[in-house]
Amino acid sequence: MGPELVFISLFVCATAMVFGIRYMSNKEKMAMIERGIDPGIAKTRQSAPTPFLSLKFGLLMVGLGLGILTALFCVLQSGIDDEEAVAVYFGSIFIFGGLGLIISYVVEKKWLDQHN
Predict the structure, then answer these.
(1) Model pTM?
(2) Which of 22, 42, 71, 90 gives 20 to 30 Å between its CA and that of 36?
(3) Rounded to an integer, what distance in angstroms lies between the CA atom of residue 104 and that of residue 116?
(4) At what angle do helices 82-114 and 50-78 cross, to 10 degrees?
(5) How confident is the prediction along the chain (116 residues), in pLDDT tens digits per residue?
(6) d(CA 9, CA 1)
(7) 65: buried, middle or exposed (CB in 10 Å: 19+, 13-18, 0-12)?
(8) Helix, strand or coil, per DSSP, at residue 24
(9) Residue 99 contacts by C-beta under 8 Å, 6 or more apart in sequence?
């Protein structure tokens, strides 16, 4: 009965958190309207163009894929047992995922420097 209770309480807490966030967001917008502030104005800010978001996620996914493949080849070549292979997999995934995000940052920064 223990694991079922954990999953049920996890679902209930997650649902309550989502509803709580929505409730507080609604209260904030209503307070802004009462004070005469347009709630849409507060949300508009200068952010990176959408292609950069796609580039960031694309490079992150490529990095994660390369990390998994690199870890697989390292584990197969070295004959590491399963318990130690987990560390190799997680390490490679984080290293290559981080490299993908760093490459994305460099590309975005170069583009922003050229257009400012």
Answers:
(1) 0.57
(2) 22
(3) 18
(4) 150
(5) 577 888 899 999 999 999 999 999 999 989 988 998 887 755 555 555 667 888 889 999 999 999 999 999 999 999 888 888 999 999 999 999 999 999 999 998 998 889 87
(6) 12
(7) middle
(8) helix
(9) 63
